[in-house]
Amino acid sequence: MQEELISKINWQKVNNLVPAIIQDHKSAEVLMLGYMNKEALKESLRLKRVVFFSRTKNRLWLKGEESGNFLDIIELGLDCDNDTLLILVKPCGATCHTGSISCFEQISKKADMVFLARLEKLINTRKSALAENSYTAKLFQSGTKRIAQKVGEEGVESALAAVAGDNIELCNESADLLFHLNVLLADQNLSLSDVISVLKERNKSE
Fold first, then answer.
1. Among 17, 60, 99, 172, which is 20 to 30 Å from 200 by CA?
2. Pairing relation of β-strands 85-91 and 51-54?
3. Cα–Cα distance measured from residue 173 to residue 167, given in angstroms and rounded to the nearest whole number
4. Average pLDDT estimate for 97-104
5. Which band of pLDDT confidence, cut at 50, 70 and 90, is reported for residue 204?
């Protein structure tokens, strides 16, 4: 499979290099763009971590070799022209040298799914926060029963808003429902990715 992938790439298009778009496998956030030569791609496949060819240093560069913020490869593939790689990764820390999650921070954080993924991460940080400083932390400390009760309440209120034809209230209540559902999942050490996996499995039969 490794040799097949390498042989399919149009290496001549960019001076024996191939652009590699790096994307978070959970949030779909675009993290960065780098370049690989054949050796960098082979090393990436061997290590299952992203290795670029540094055009400034003129050598292979394991992303995270100094910072420890590696990019663990989940899956990768070529575009329809066989001249660009898309690599889905699990990032180990911030990707950008500035300390930001993405090298495209100002634009990528505006994407809806990226916002949702970052909210999920923020909610998880509240599990160990002081209750007096955070509503979410207070919810976690109140226990699963109370969190589940909030999900039920917000679900009912969302349904009532829809029946009443109040779209503004439906959006407000749905936001509350989605937030509290995220808290409940985090309380059970689950995530939206676990829920999406179930939907993917169900969709196979469609």
1. 172
2. unpaired
3. 10
4. 94
5. confident
Beta carbons of 90 and 74 less than 8 angstroms apart:
yes
Question: Per-residue pLDDT tens for 150-197?
Answer: 999 999 999 999 999 999 999 999 999 999 999 999 999 999 999 999
pTM for the model: 0.82
Amino acid at 186: A
Short-list 47, 193, 24, CA closest to 96: 24
Could you tell me if 87 and 73 are in contact, meaning their C-beta atoms sit under 8 angstroms apart? yes
Q: Are 89 and 50 in contact (CB under 8 A)?
A: yes
Beta strands 59-62 and 71-78 are: unpaired
**pLDDT at residue number 205:** 64
Q: Cα–Cα–Cα angle for 72, 76, 82, nearest 5°?
A: 145
79 alpha-carbon distance from chain centroid: 20
User: Which domains can be identified in the chain, with CATH numbers?
Assistant: 2-103 (3.10.20.810), 111-203 (1.10.287.1080)
pLDDT at residue 136, as a whole number: 96
Look-up of token digits 């932390």: 137
What residues contact residue 2 under an 8 Å CB cut-off, 6+ apart? 42, 45
